[in-house]
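so my prof wants the structure for this chain in the tokens format not the other one, which i didnt know existed until like an hour ago. anyway here's the sequence
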Amino acid sequence: MRQCAKPLLQNNQVAKSKPRRQRDPAQPNLPFDLMPDRVEPCLALLKPTAPGGPEWAFENKWDGYRLAIHIEPKGVRIITRGGHDWTHRFPAIADAAGKLGVGTAILDGEAVVLNDDGHSDFGALQRSLGGRGGKRASTEAVLFAFDLLYFDGHDLTGTELSVRRHLLEDLLDDAGTTIRLSEEVDGDGGELLENARSLGLEGVIAKRRDSTYRSGRHGDWLKIKCIQSESFIVVGYEQSASARGGLGSLLLAARRGTGWISVGAVGTGFKQKDAVYLKATLDKLRIKTPAVPLKGKNLVFSQPTLIAEIEFRGWTDEGNLRHASYKGLREAQDNAAVFNMSDR
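here's what i got, hopefully its the right format
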């Protein structure tokens, strides 16, 4: 099923619409601003409730890999949030970007795989890439682009979001299905969040319309989740003779300063083959001294290498995850996504 272009909308709502015009391909591409090799991404600050007011624009929150698409005369580069070149992992997106008819551009967006309901499915995306450490290139992933940082020789990071969105909409007017516009939606933030919850979506992103593009987490962008999902580092596992694959639960930690802090464990969400793979991989990473202070029976400690995406319902007073469920592993190169306790 093709993804609904405006998944947060109900029938009585309309998406923000701006006039579109075709770019003149004969216009010279003057290099007014040097194209950066990389732009550190603007990150959304987690909030429990959606903001209100006309100064905020809303989008669906996608569950995939954050990517920057660099389009240059010499070709296309696809850069991850952590700065790794993954052009070879997303050849279809790279090919589509090369056909946009622009000399130079940097698109900010999220690569996802859609399920039968048209929702982004992180597990399906991981499988399309061959799992953690896999060598496969995803032919199923599509890019939902939500920002334009550089365009035809112009650095747009200092311009307000409404201008960047206008240019992005024009650029993607006839882009096809592999690169799509992440639609901006007008409406009350609380109602849009309820719409997202009723549709089984992960949440919404709110952005200040007049904000410039600032790298890091400054509050210009907010994320409000229906169900919380974050990345945590795996620091070991609990052995179990009765559980599938001999793995009872994964021991998890988050960033705190320059080190790690325990956030509890997760014992649900993985299938038999997941448990077998996780136990075998963690056994190869076994260490005697845990990366965080941990005590208990039948615990096996590992190097803080594996990154697990975890769905959970909140935090306990002790700082552990409540009702955690395993969703899948992230690539080692995606370590920039590991949750930092200062973001709580």
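also thought this was worth mentioning. The chain has two domains: 45-225, 228-343.
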